[in-house]
Amino acid sequence: MNTITKFSFLTIITILLTLSTTHLMAADNNAVALTAQIGKGSCSFSTSTDTVEFKNYIVNDFKSGDAVGILPLKLLYQCEGYDDGLKATVSVSGMTPQDTRVFLSGSSTASGVGFMLKDGNITETTGFYNAGTTLINGKLFSVNAVAQGEHIISIGFVKQNTASNVTSGNANAAVTFTFEFL
């Protein structure tokens, strides 16, 4: 009789386990997508100011190849997690109506002038138009992406390199810097 009791007890447990397993097998299956992204690091960028304002000039101040004034603009950056030597690329964009190297908004009432951006610290107004590396609309330049720092852009107020005469009025430009990482 002891063998029958053990057999009945094992049979009941086997039936219960089979029923619970069958119930689990009838449940809906849910797929879980697993994703991850490995980044090179992160950076935050800003400019030292939102407005660069030159003093007033007269038409006769403008000479071909020279700037009447130069002001610096600092691109400030804070980077983490990048390998030494990695560069962030920056593009500059804005309106360049006649001379692709000189930025000038369509709302400007002055003509024959504009704002030329140079990579680095250029301080000499004479020969500014051809000095250093000019930042051209839509083209890329690089900044060091290690730790934190600043990248200097020199902005010169220049006569356009066209046949246009300089006329009096208001000159303005909006320039956008777009940061990307290699």
UniProtKB/TrEMBL annotation:
- Keyword check for NAD, yes or no: no
The protein's name: Fimbrial-type adhesion domain-containing protein
Q: Where in the cell is it found?
A: Fimbrium
> InterPro entries of this UniProt entry?
Adhesion_dom_fimbrial, Adhesion_dom_fimbrial_sf, Adhesion_dom_sf, Bact_Fimbrial_Adh_Pro
Instruction: Check the record and name the Pfam families matching this protein.
Output: Fimbrial
Q: What is the lineage of its organism?
A: Bacteria, Pseudomonadati, Pseudomonadota, Gammaproteobacteria, Enterobacterales
The parts of the chain that form a coiled coil are none
Q: Which organism is it from?
A: Pragia fontium
Please state which protein family the record places this protein in. Belongs to the fimbrial protein family.
Which domain of life does this protein belong to? Bacteria
The residue ranges of the Fimbrial-type adhesion domain are 35-181
Which PANTHER family would you find in this protein's record? FIMBRIAL SUBUNIT ELFA, FIMBRIAL SUBUNIT ELFA-RELATED
Key words, A-Z: Fimbrium, Signal
Which SUPFAM superfamilies does the UniProt record give? Bacterial adhesins (SSF49401)
| Gene3D superfamilies in the cross-refs | Fimbrial-type adhesion domain (2.60.40.1090)
Signal peptide positions (record): 1-26
